[in-house]
């Protein structure tokens, strides 16, 4: 149980949801496979594969949203419909009209759907009720919104906020690269991406490449700004920080993983040990990242996160 990415949200101050209440609310929408005419199904799964929907270890909670999607490409439906339309045209002596073709495609889709293969996936979310964090293990904010949306459907009130900091990640990362000096507790690794703010959106990426020297500074002086930067925290956790304050490509180093080698007696014990260790490390990493960005931006009132905030990230390219 090791997260690869973190899409970060803040729980409301004084959030008093109990684990029993959350379990009860999620049980309103358990995961069920697609019906014969369903293109997609989603619902809550047990992270451990038992009947418990909210898995707790050391005061940290884990939930999982399951998805099942039918694989029925529109090209397959069109091909089958075109073949039937050609046969009907030969029998009738004239081609089908636009509305007839539309109805035929819908009929073909309904007939093929029950026989279409399905693909399943799941997204995990970590809830830290003490630290006030909710983090979804998703590669983009748009994907994480699937989890947040389902939580809103199940909970009576869930006013989450995105994490905002006094300094933008772009500004901070530019300063770190220009001065070739990471904030306290961090070190700069060898991956980064810089993008131009001009209309041409020119970009340059460095992978396993030293980031000190005049080359990087030249890109910064030319107007390119960092959108992704690889960092390591406390020689224990490596990750990529993005301009949207996402934590990506998380890698818990051997000094962390070796702490549980040979200590877990079975799969459940290993799962719990990894989750406890992961949340312990992330519980120190996240406040350090926020502090490196000048601290959290104080807001006069809590603003609920809406779907529109995250849909714009749907096309984010992988790093």
TrEMBL record:
Transmembrane segments: none annotated. It is found in: Cytoplasm, Nucleoid. Keywords: Cytoplasm, DNA recombination. InterPro entries: RdgC. The keyword ATP-binding does not apply. GO terms for cellular component: bacterial nucleoid; cytoplasm. GO terms for biological process: DNA recombination; regulation of DNA recombination. One of its GO terms (molecular function) is double-stranded DNA binding. It comes from the Bacteria. Belongs to the RdgC family. NCBIfam families: PRK00321.1-4, PRK00321.1-5. May be involved in recombination. This is Recombination-associated protein RdgC. It comes from Parazoarcus communis. The gene is rdgC.
């Amino acid at each position: 149980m090791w997260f690869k990415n973190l899409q970060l949200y803040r729980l409301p101050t004084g959030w008093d949801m109990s684990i029993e209440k959350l379990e009860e609310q999620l049980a309103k929408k358990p995961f069920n496979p697609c019906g014969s005419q369903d293109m997609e199904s989603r619902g809550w799964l047990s992270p451990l594969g038992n009947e418990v929907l909210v898995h707790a270890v050391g005061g940290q909670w884990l939930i999982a949203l399951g998805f099942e999607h039918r694989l029925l490409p529109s090209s397959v439906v069109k091909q089958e419909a075109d073949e039937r339309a050609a046969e009907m045209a030969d029998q009738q002596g004239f081609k089908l009209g636009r509305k007839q073709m539309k109805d035929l495609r819908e009929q073909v889709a309904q007939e093929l759907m029950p026989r279409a293969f399905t693909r399943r996936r799941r997204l995990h979310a970590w809830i830290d009720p003490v630290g006030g964090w909710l983090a979804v293990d998703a590669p983009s904010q748009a994907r994480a919104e699937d989890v947040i949306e389902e939580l809103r459907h199940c909970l009576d009130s869930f006013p989450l906020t995105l994490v905002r900091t006094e300094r933008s990640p772009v500004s901070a990362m530019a300063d770190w690269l220009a001065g070739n000096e990471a904030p306290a507790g961090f070190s700069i690794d060898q991956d980064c991406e810089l993008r131009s703010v001009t209309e041409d959106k020119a970009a340059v990426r460095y992978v396993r490449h030293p980031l000190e020297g005049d080359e990087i500074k030249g890109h910064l002086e030319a107007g390119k700004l960092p959108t992704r930067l690889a960092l390591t925290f406390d020689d224990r956790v490596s990750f990529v920080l993005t301009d949207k304050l996402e934590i990506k490509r998380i890698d818990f180093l051997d000094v962390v993983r070796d702490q549980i080698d040979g200590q877990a007696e079975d799969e459940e014990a290993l799962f719990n040990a990894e989750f406890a260790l992961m949340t312990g490390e992330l519980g120190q990493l996240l406040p350090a990242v926020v502090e490196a960005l000048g601290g959290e931006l104080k807001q006069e009132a809590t603003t609920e996160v809406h779907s529109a905030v995250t849909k714009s990230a749907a096309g984010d390219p992988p790093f």
